[in-house]
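Sanity check

After download, print the first record. It should look like this:
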Amino acid sequence: MTELVQEKKAVSQSIDFYKIFRVFLSRWYWITGTVALALFGAWLYLWYTPPIYQTGASLKLEDSNPNLGTNAGIVASQNYNYTDKIQAESFTIRSNEVIANAVKTLDYKISYYLKGRVRTTELYPNVPFVIEILKQDSVNFSRSLYTVTGKDEQHFELSTADNEDKKTTYQYNAIINIGNMSFRIKDKIPVKSTYQFKFNSQEDFIGRAMGGLNIGEAARFTNVMGLNQTDGNAVFAADILNAIMKAYVKYDVIQRRRSARQTVDFINSQLGFIDTAAGKSGSTLASYKARNKMLDVSSSTSMTVGKLSDFEKQKTELNLKQLGIRQLQEQVNSNKSKIEIGMDLDGEINSGMGTLVTQLNNLLASREAKLSQFNNDSQPVRQIEQQISNVKAGIRNAVAGMLRKNEQTIRYIDSQIAGVTQKMSTIPQKEQNFVKLQTNFEVNNKVRSYLSEKKLEAEMNAAAIVPGASIVNPAYPSYYAISPNSSKAYTTALMLGLTSGFGLILLVRFLNPYIYDKETVEGLTHTPIIGVIRKFPDYIDQDSRQALSLSKPKSVFAESVRSVRTNLSFLASHKESKVICITSEVSGEGKSFVTINLAGTLALIDKRIILIAADLRRSKLHKAFGNDNKKGLSSLLSGQASLEEVISHDEVHHIDFIPSGPVPPNPSELLHSATMKELLLKLEQQYDYVLVDTAPVGLVSDAIPLIRNADINLFVIRSGVSQQRAANIPERLSREYGLSNLAIILNAFGDDALYANYYTTDYSRGGGNSTYYYSDYSGYSGSGYYDDENRKWWMFWKKK
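Expected structure tokens:
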């Protein structure tokens, strides 16, 4: 086997790109067919697939709020990462609360459809007829598709998708109780017109809106958010997108005003208490002055009262700030979503603290994004949780510092109040009591004034808060379908059809186990090819009598047989008379057909020919000569008949013939006998050519003794029938039996370009089996030398 491989490497062959082109050109109709099928499939896909529309809009995110307080300056000083901010706000837009508020603004309770032959089309926002819902369960109601058809001016037919065959007739305005709900159809439906409708819940449209919503950056490094909505209805896509943006802007304003509202509510609760305390202290002071007939106090006592009231006011302000710090601390420890800095902490929050709060809010939004993609215990979530923990630790440290500072200030104020109180002990008792009442009254008034100012400031800040986003471009219906894309579908189908066509050709070639041309034979063996016989131009019956008559002598087929006859003279040229043995691997490869044609063409040049049917098992050669095969070679070898009794003479074609005779029980032994050798020697003296048609060597061993005693051995390979293993048999026979007289005939060559090899043997370099000159007679159509050549229309025009 190693030697065989090495021999194959010696064959000089080169790629013929014209042959590659002819391979695909030969089956152009396969490619055309696959392309046509693919384009037809694309047409069906476009016809039956509902179109999908897309509309777009944009929102601009504001960097800060124009608050009146110093908090606005703090927020404005922060550097935002627009990408993170857009990502964080996208989760707010996708929240159930925002989408639900948007759906509420649409007419979502009933969907109408127009039923067509191919597909059903949603009619939103058109309402072909009015349906009045009388009673509907909020959750458990049928969401089945109802089909309604106008019957006449007073009645219509109604059926459900669950039971389409059951149609019920109703009158217009009649109450219909079905699907756990009551409704009635008020408008008349055109007669024989068919519509469909179904009842929806708010949750049904929430899923529809979320499923088609896409949010991202409109452009890099900008605070503009791009929103896209895809849906099967272009108007609905625009309406729901506009509703979502409006609901988000409204929701954002509410969230931004929450801190101011909380401050106002707290101040209102404090003002109620202070108003009561101030009124009571005022009455007590007036009563005390009236009882003691005190009109005024000394200037020193007045100064003491002023200091004490100022200190008490400062302490109250510090207590309010202490409450705000505690609220911020609770927000950080609660592990909830967004952190909001209360207005009572204005001036207390530095830029570093504001940056940490902003960073924490971004991390909390990112965590929500990660949780929608990963589990709680996944590595990405654990990493962001660690980052949140680190930022919160920094905020807690800052808050603890603020608490310590505030508490120290409160202790300092308490010490000052204690000092002033101690000084008051030096004045008379009656004045001390007056000072205490006066101080209490003034403190209550100052605190009330302070709280009123803070309330007014908080209300002004709340009124000044604007949405954190503004609609830059609203959505408009786009009636250009993004899917299915007709040009893309047809282009894809065209490419798929071409690929399938070329792939089918390559697949057929790849799966082909048969030999079709001489280049394949030359690539598999070094046994010489003596000739290529073209495919017989007419129908061949089982007797092969047409081949024997050699009809159409000017045909390409006849010329190819003559080429084999010419090359026979180069084999065993030293012998005047030649014994030629013809065999093949299996039956059906045309060895008998080749034998008959060689005998006929040799007889035409006045050669003495005898043809022996040496296939003693299944020979049919006698039918071509009209012989009854009652006596033949088997009779001669078994001693039951003489040579003169078994030879038949064809006077028309000048060919002598010995049939195979009756099938013997021991065909192999008869062919191995000395009688067979003597017969060949005797016939060799009487004829120029002794043609022996043998049994296939791949099935039985009957032909081996004949092959070893023949002057020339011809191995027939049939194009499209013989498998590639057949080309290795002549070389094996030559090696096993020491033969040097084996040659190959390629039979029934049809020049099928599909199976042709893409390489050509390079004879100029001595490659291939170039011992004999022969042609496969392909490419000579139109030369005018052959009767059966395929003339093209331009040939006939040229002839005329």
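If your output differs, re-run the checksum step. Summary of this record's structure: Residues 273-473 form one domain.
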